[in-house]
Specification:
Largest sheet: 8 strands, mixed
Strand order of the largest sheet: 3-2-1-4-5-6-7-8
CATH class of the largest domain: Alpha Beta
Order of helices and strands: EHEHHEEHEHEHEHEHHHHHHHH
Number of domains: 2
CATH architecture of the largest domain: 3-Layer(aba) Sandwich
Strand content: 5-15%
Number of strands: 8
Number of helices: 15
Length: 328
């Protein structure tokens, strides 16, 4: 299969960074952005100032407001916008084409993973999931980054990973799409929790314990969904969970810090903060856990804080009073 041209849908920080990575890997890239002014800036000045500051973009990237036929399509919009973004694309151009899903979240209302949304909107497309410990600024600046690319066809997944690999961006092929998707979505929920622990000044010990228990809870969710708990030992699991739950570069961690300081969601957004993916994913994850019959106290705790029904100190006290049992 030809893998020379790449279309990236979504001109935000992550979409632009992935376009940069693909261009550095030797691909010709067309980046679909919101408006003509943004496209003109990218095409003439080689920057996307709003999202990546003064970072110079590769010459192999062109930008426009409409998608063009490409050998590979990367969908790089927020998780709750994936369905609308796909609705704007001629699905006939996606038949038999690899579509790389890079959003990390579950859809409100449907409880669907990103590949399930793709299956609804473009059933002829070939789904792949990209996830792992990565920040857009690092990828765009060619700082060393390793991620997971999961697909159903081992040979095609390996070929696609090789096509997107450059000197600094290293996708490692995997076959557990479900596990990678669930891990990517849930780590944002746990990053909110870890940020809240930081914001409430509960200490590094509490945060470390939370990460460990989040890993166990995530494993229960992945297994119940039909994925492999082994996936969590790699980049898409432990790697991404650790990065997002410990770095102030994470939007979810920053949002959680504000929650931990006692701010409500509405106040945080009114203060100019961008909405973190985990805010939308948390109630979906809680509903999914209940549907699956999975014990997920951390997800429920985050939802209690987000909804304003409990503050972080009350939630932590409740978690600490749970019956002691053997560690699983």
């Amino acid at each position: 299969m030809r893998l020379e041209t790449v279309g990236v849908i979504g001109g935000g920080a992550w979409g632009t960074a992935l376009a940069q990575a693909a261009a550095m890997a030797g691909r010709q890239v067309h980046l679909v952005v919101r408006d003509a002014a943004q496209a003109d800036e990218i095409n003439t000045q080689r920057t996307n100032q709003r999202y990546l500051g003064a970072q110079i973009l590769h010459d192999a990237i062109t930008a426009g407001t409409e998608a063009k036929p490409a050998d590979v399509v990367i969908l790089a919009v927020p998780a709750q916008s994936s369905r609308a973004a796909l609705a704007a694309v001629d699905v006939a151009t996606l038949v038999g084409k690899p579509v790389v899903l890079s959003a990390k979240g579950l859809e409100t209302g449907t409880l669907q993973r990103q590949s399930e949304i793709l299956g609804d909107m473009a059933p002829g497309a070939i789904p792949f999931v990209l996830s792992g410990p990565s920040f857009a600024a690092d990828v765009a600046a060619a700082r060393p980054t390793a991620v997971t690319l999961a697909g159903d066809d081992a040979e095609l997944t390996s070929a696609l990973a090789a096509a997107l690999a450059g000197p600094s961006f290293r996708p490692y092929a995997a076959d557990d799409r479900i596990g990678v998707e669930i891990a990517g979505a849930l780590k944002n929920v746990y990053a909110l929790a870890c940020g809240a622990v930081e914001g409430a000044q509960l200490g590094a010990s509490a945060r470390s314990a939370l990460i460990a228990r989040a890993y166990a809870e995530m494993a229960r969710m992945v297994s119940a969904m039909g994925g492999s708990a082994h996936t969590l030992t790699g980049l898409a699991g432990l790697g991404d969970l650790t990065l997002t739950c410990t770095s102030t570069q994470s939007r979810n961690y920053q949002f959680g810090m504000a929650l931990g300081r006692g701010e409500r969601v509405e106040e945080i957004l009114a203060g100019g903060a961008k909405l973190a993916e985990g805010v939308a994913t948390t109630p979906v994850a809680e509903a999914l856990a209940k549907t699956l019959g999975v014990d997920a106290p951390l997800i429920s705790a985050v939802q209690a804080v987000l909804s304003g029904s409990a503050d972080i100190s009350t939630v932590v006290a409740g978690l600490m009073s749970r019956p002691l049992k053997r560690e699983d």
